[in-house]
Amino acid sequence: MHSICPSLQSLSLHTVLLLLLFLPNSTTPLCKNMLSFIFFLLILPISSHGNAELAVLMDIKASLDPENKHLSSWTETADPCGGSFIGVACNQYLKVANISLQGKGLTGKVPPAISGLKCLSGLYLHYNFLTGEIPKEISTLTELSELYLNVNNLTGIIPQEIGNMANLEVIELCCNQLNGSIPSELGTLKKLHVLALQHNRLTGQIPRTLGGLVMLKRLDLSYNQLDGPIPITMVKVSGLEFLDVQNNTLSGFVPTGLKRLNNGFSFKNNRDLCGAAAFGSLRPCTELDVAMINQLEPFTPTPNTTISENIPQSANILPRCQQPHCTNSSNLPRVGIIAGIVAVIAALTITAFITVFIHRRRKQKIWSKTETPEHRFSMQESAKKSGDSACAWDPTQKSPKKCGFCIESRSIESLSLQSFNLEEIESATRYFSDANLLGRSKFSAVYKGVLRDRSVVAIKSVSVTSCKADEAEFTKGLSMLTSLKHENLARLRGFCCSKGRGECFLVYDFASKGNLSEYLDIEDGRSSHVLDWPKRILLDQQYNPLITDAGLLKLLADDIVFSALKVSAALGYMAPEYITTGKFTEKSDVYAFGVVVLQILSGKSNITGSIRAAAADSRFGDFIDENLEGNFSESEADKLAKIGAICVDEVPENRLTMEAVILELTNSI
Q1: Stretch (H or E) spanning 603
Q2: Fewer CB near the last or first residue (10 Å), C or N of the chain?
Q3: Sorted alphabetically, which SUPFAM superfamilies does this protein's record hold (predicted)?
Q4: Which of 8, 527, 376, 431 is nearest to 199 (CA)?
Q5: Residues 6+ apart with CB under 8 A from 176
Q6: What does CATH list as the number for 332-362+518-547+585-669?
Q7: Could you tell me the fold of the domain covering 155-310?
Q8: pTM of the prediction?
Q9: Is residue 216 within 8 Å of residue 240, measured between CB atoms?
Q10: What is the pLDDT of residues 516-564, one digit of tens each?
Q11: How far apart are CA 250 and CA 378, in angstroms?
């Protein structure tokens, strides 16, 4: 009997089984025997199919892991759908639907036998050491929606037969040694969202058929040897958000319609590209460029495309915005800045008080261990059951591929924190694109991401060498992060630890208005400094302040913590007593709070002695942000200035407590 994925056989089985169970006693033995025989005939193909998939999996194991080092759990006596086959997940009909073996250290080849898993919807073999070619037989997997073969050592061409896989949504083939041209047949994949072929040895032109990928959001062809023009058909892909063609040998006119991608369009290091001045770094097109465009890519106008989008009407292309009055309208009104300042101060004081009161031990050395309740985590079951979804590491290992320990679900059962797959993180950040990079520090980087539910998040990556090596300490730190709850703390939505990448990713809600540092040291509407505390104070859509990185130091190794503290001290946020005693108290946090208050009032990152003196004496002209142009409430500024000045007093006993700060602010409202 022919095998199908949403099995109609199961419906027939259910029907016959119900008849057998509920037959009246008067039914003749002949009828009962006939139904029993039919039941046997129906169940026989399913048993045979299960055995067939087991045989296929054993062939796949022999090819992927020829030395049986990493897939020893795959045995002929085990049930692939019983949970013992690492990286294998089955659907409700007990057929293999997912293989997740990313970062397992596999050294074999992708076998043609994989075509025997007819219900496979996800294949994740990235971050391994696989060699050989991509078998064309893979194209028979018509149910496959996500294909991840990136970061291996694959060679050969991209099989054109992949164009027959109509359900494909993601093709990740980057960072291999693939050669040949990009098959034009890929343009028939109407459900494709992501096509990532970067860092290979692909040659030839970009197929015009890719313009038919109506669902495409990300196309990455960078770091190859492609030539010819960027097809004008790409303009018609209305949902395209990210197009990267940098570091190729492309030539000709860049379609002006791609300007809508803004920072999502990367084309540098293609010397022969030309185009409109709106692209900035492109040279103007010449008559020779026009001739080459006509020769290389004949174009027939359609109702949705104009000739002007394809070929420049003259060699000198003018930018769209030529009027003298065209200016950048993104700068915030100064009244909005004032409202933002008030919101930041009011919420920040409450946040600081609660955080200090609950979570800071008095007179605590930074290297002493924090006593927190014994929490255990609860991870939502991953749809893909990825082996990389919650795997941590041993930072003492030299290779980031090695895994020192894994955060088991049985040890993390009570805390509501979503676990993400590495595939979700990669997809959300457009494969950690520089266009999505929000900031980078010595031990981490932050990316803007869009999850599959279209929600926008900020994803902080922490490198392997920066994390605590001990599983218990790491788990305790993550527990503390999730236990911090306050309306002015950036919400931690979930995490993903990848032993393959040697990184852990923390997923936070995204703050659309940036951070406080963007509003300090402003000249002509632009920020020139990236600071410590102000960068950790985010602003949401309504300019409500959100503190980020609260408790993050509990995940980091001691040397990284000390390094971060040195930076804070250099920027002036550390209280004088810490320099001499190495101890933190609540008054130490009060000092840092006072520095931030004075930074907001002055608009300056460097709070000098003269600014402190002017604030204490309410000499507004000597310290209030000049960008406000006098448009502020002097009574409110006076109250905040005096609070800030007292909080940064060098003598801890002279500083206000956070309780007193809140009372002062409350009385002034």
Answers
A1: none
A2: C
A3: L domain-like (SSF52058), Protein kinase-like (PK-like) (SSF56112)
A4: 431
A5: 149, 150, 151, 152, 153, 154, 155, 199, 200
A6: 1.10.510.10
A7: 3.80.10
A8: 0.46
A9: yes
A10: 656 555 554 433 333 344 455 666 666 677 666 554 554 454 444 444 5
A11: 50
